[in-house]
């Protein structure tokens, strides 16, 4: 909160702050949209540069565009530090670190050939969308999602520990049964196969060749069937529970923006002004 | 609703309208069944034409049959426009557009070789089944299905956005780790691999070759395990909730046709006449 | 129910009836166990005969064993007809038809070479286990399972119809995009690929080769993600509902055998005599 | 419980007992952590020994390390027997048998070449973690998980029996339809393919080559879709039910350690001393 601007510089600083950090003014929203567009474009450029055929044709254009975007991102990063009152808070926040890591690889590419590919970390900047879409309905969905996942964490950890021990044992059995001639060259390789099979991915780069191996593999697949039901069951049970709780809590919620706990007598949402139809 | 037919033509027009649009008369139901049969046949013909061995043998017969069906569809389309009182409503409705797109590719094939294959869009006409099966029980199922999916939309969008960012990052890591010699020729290709793995499809056209790559792939698969639980959990929680609500609302529903909210004292369903056993 | 046996033959017939059809006497249970063992053995024999290496070694022994079992099954079939009072009911029941189909292929093999492999239909006789395990707890589980699946049938049919139309359209798009040089030789073949991908099976016998094809394939996989959640959600919601209903109905159920609706004052289960701990 | 130590030896025995079996003293916890670390290290060593490139380089070091760990495990095993009052209880407990099996393969390797690989059974010793993490919150999660799985056992057995019969029949049909030239060399092989397909693993080592075979395979995949929903539905319904019951029972539970059923008036958890916020 910047109060009482004392000079023209301060006034400019305050204006830029509102544009960069704010989401309520037209300029602020426009800036956010342009920024998001540039992040998307930038991620696409880094991707396209690795496509040999495309890079051969447009190498020059790609590099110029990347430097323009990197320049913009650098300017934005510096302005963010300059216009905030607590630069440290921003610099060491998760978003601040991501913003820095998003521009570093380009500058490092002068010294280290091939470091440019790490610019892909810019994809993480796409998480800014959640800051831009600072809408209660939207944030509510994310929070509900994270809450259910968080509540399932304990059981899923226990479950994964059992799965880990099982994969080691199954992998070792398959190593002994199938042996190197069928692609099970070592226990770690066999464990890799077991995970590929248990998760029903099934690349087929390694597959059992002996009748006994195929029999054990069949058992593993049917086991994987039961196993895939467990995390699904855990997460679903949490969703169902939090869903029920939510329904009770949000009895007096606005249909438009999702803000809950309105006074039962109020006729308009205090957040977005939408007429309320409270049940 | 066409009232007071003034001429023979008008009377004919009204009769055709009842046959084409109606589902209550014998002729109307028969027309719908024949239409559905022709749509199915037509879709099969377009498919079969692409099978080299079959097309070589029966090329001539296939083309004649296709033109007969296209002719019938064209006639039907024109009659639908001619017999309705509001042709614009039909022409610009979803079903009207599909009906037009279903006959266009055949006529376009005179000018554009190979455009005939787009006749496959006729498959969309199969959605007419829902208009024909205008049964409350059946429609209820569809509505329940769509409601649950619609309610899950918000959370699934948030979830897919996180998955998108994850696939970009995982794909880039695998591109750096595995490199071109193992098939990870570019970041977009690696992202394709990540999606193939995360969704547990696992073609095996690209699979990690280095120990580190296989280790990361194993982690991705186990992550995919947890991830597949999320949309399932979201959709299931919605189904459970709408299921519970439905049970309460449909307390006085007919066992035969599913129509709900009967008067608790009524002894027969007002829709199908089936005796009611209200609980 | 055979009353008043008038001759020795009738007495014998009655005794055999109790052994073959009954599950309460020691002889009846023993007969059922031996029968189930023979069915299992027979299924294994038919399987093993198709394994070239094994058949080459033990061809003679396999054939003798198969004829012995077929002889026993034929005798059992005839005795079942002879000892029941209503032979027609048995002959035209599902189990009666299966019993006949289980022995026919062996006799047909005299006229039709290769018909012996259809003896595998004996696997269906394994369903007799449910008749033998005539235990309320066990039957309850099966009924609960079938009820939930039956209740989901309507929604799953609607869902599969949508999936069918989608696979036709996606398959056609991929046929146009990928073409024959990447294995998408015809629309039916492309539809086969679409089903392989949507269900996350992913053999990899056909996989997209063009960038656009891989992009569409990625979209299809993510769609498959959402799609797999739907039947799971439907079935789970039904299980949850029937589970809840069951809990209410079976309040006074026996812990040992599962029989429900006991008189709240009774101290022992009327079915198995186990002490009751009613809540 | 060892009371009244009469000699120095007895005192030592008591102390070692507390260190090995106890988890409350610092020495006891330290011993458990070191033991767990050694188990993990040992499992990794057995794995690495099978990796040809690594074993060639560090064969000598691997063997020395393995013998040191085996020595430590042997000593621990003997001390566990020596310091407990009821050695039989320990020796014939599951953990006692695992502890013995974990050291046996190394000693057997003097007589039987290649038996060393079975030392991988040490992975089962990782289950000790649950004894070490003797935390109510953690144990509660495991118990909840096992309870839900146990409650689903009956239905899942019935379900798997149906799946088994289906795989035999589908496998046989595919054997007849596809034949040996497409890799379906025998009925057991075709059953293996059916399981690979039904569970959506889909290696692609065997895949249908005839149009009819591909059509049947498509049906099997869509069936597999419905089928995967069943165990998930069963497990989820149980999780939801036990979740609901849990919520009611644990109304007065501690947020920190999960211990439930506190006196509604208590202000601190009787187990961990954390301030309670009972609702």
From TrEMBL, chains A, B, C, D:
Gene Ontology biological process terms from the UniProt entry: action potential
Metal-binding keyword on record: no
GO molecular function: voltage-gated potassium channel activity
Listed transmembrane segments: 30-48, 60-79, 91-113, 158-177, 184-203, 215-237
InterPro entries according to UniProt: Ion_trans_dom (IPR005821), VG_K_chnl (IPR028325), Volt_channel_dom_sf (IPR027359)
Gene3D superfamilies in alphabetical order: 1.10.287.70, Voltage-gated potassium channels. Chain C
Statement: the UniProt record of this protein carries the keyword Methyltransferase: no
Pfam families on file: Ion_trans
Subcellular location(s) per record: Membrane
Membrane association type: Multi-pass membrane protein
Superkingdom of origin organism: Bacteria
Ranges of residues in domain Ion transport: 29-244
Keyword list, A-Z: Ion channel, Ion transport, Membrane, Potassium, Potassium channel, Potassium transport, Transmembrane, Transmembrane helix, Transport, Voltage-gated channel
Cellular component GO terms held in the UniProt record: voltage-gated potassium channel complex
Protein name per UniProt: Ion transporter
Species name: Flavobacterium franklandianum
């Amino acid at each position: 909160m910047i109060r009482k601007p004392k000079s023209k510089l301060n006034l400019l600083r305050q204006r830029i702050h509102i544009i960069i950090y704010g989401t309520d003014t037209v300029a602020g929203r426009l800036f956010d949209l342009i920024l998001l567009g540039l992040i998307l474009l930038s991620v696409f450029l880094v991707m396209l540069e690795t496509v040999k055929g495309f890079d051969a044709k447009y190498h020059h254009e790609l590099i110029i565009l990347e430097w323009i975007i990197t320049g913009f991102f650098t300017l934005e990063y510096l302005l963010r530090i300059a216009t905030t009152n607590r630069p440290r808070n921003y610099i060491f926040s998760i978003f601040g670190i991501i913003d820095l890591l998003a521009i570093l690889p380009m500058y490092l590419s002068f010294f280290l050939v091939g470091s440019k590919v790490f610019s892909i970390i810019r994809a993480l900047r796409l998480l800014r969308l959640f800051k831009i879409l600072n809408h209660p309905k939207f944030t509510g969905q994310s929070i509900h999602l994270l809450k259910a996942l968080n509540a399932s964490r304990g059981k899923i950890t226990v479950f994964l520990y059992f799965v880990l021990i099982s994969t080691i044992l199954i992998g070792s059995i398959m190593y002994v049964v199938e042996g190197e001639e069928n692609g099970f060259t070592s226990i770690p390789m066999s464990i890799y196969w077991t995970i590929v099979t248990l998760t029903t991915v099934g690349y087929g780069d390694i597959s059992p060749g002996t009748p006994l191996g195929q029999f054990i593999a069949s058992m593993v697949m049917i086991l994987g069937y039961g196993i895939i039901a467990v995390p699904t069951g855990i997460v679903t049970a949490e969703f169902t529970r939090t869903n029920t709780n939510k329904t009770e809590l949000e009895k007096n919620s606005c249909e438009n923006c999702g803000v809950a706990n309105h006074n039962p007598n109020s006729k308009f949402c205090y957040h977005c002004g939408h007429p309320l139809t409270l049940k």
